[in-house]
UniProtKB/TrEMBL annotation:
Keywords: Secreted, Signal. It is found in: Secreted. It comes from the Eukaryota. One of its GO terms (cellular component) is extracellular region. Residues 30-139 form the Bifunctional inhibitor/plant lipid transfer protein/seed storage helical domain. PROSITE patterns: CEREAL_TRYP_AMYL_INH. GO terms for molecular function: serine-type endopeptidase inhibitor activity. Residues 1-26 form the signal peptide. InterPro entries: Allergen/soft/tryp_amyl_inhib, Allergen/tryp_amyl_inhib_CS, Bifun_inhib/LTP/seed_sf, Bifunc_inhib/LTP/seed_store. SMART domains: AAI. Pfam families: Tryp_alpha_amyl. This is Bifunctional inhibitor/plant lipid transfer protein/seed storage helical domain-containing protein.
Amino acid sequence: MASSSSSNLLAAAVLLSVLAAAGASAGTTCVPGWGIPHNPLPSCRWYVASRTCGIGPLLPLPELRRRCCRELADIAAYCRCTALSILIDGVIPPGPDAQLEGRLEDLPGCPRAVQRRFAATLITEAECNLPTITGVAECPWILGGETMPSK
């Protein structure tokens, strides 16, 4: 009987630790240095520039895409859209010495609007096939469809 009681107690402890970890991660703020790395998605920046402007490092597009998708996959699903928004529009994270991070630049013959349209597709099935917090590859506010939710 003691064995059954110990097993139930152990199962309850494991369940509580799983729930605590899930609750802690759900409260993480998606800002550079917390839920997102500082200056996130550098490979995606090159991939977007290469695909939309024909400029960038001398790497094959499939390799650039693989690197970009790996960077996006390393970011929690609930922060992916925010990371893409930072890549596209930039952000000034909290802090006394904070500077603008991210933000695609207008390139000669390749305006940000063109890059924005492509960058917004990076999580779709055709590119990286990554879900977001909603469970689908979709970030409607990136293209100006909605306001980015605060998280």
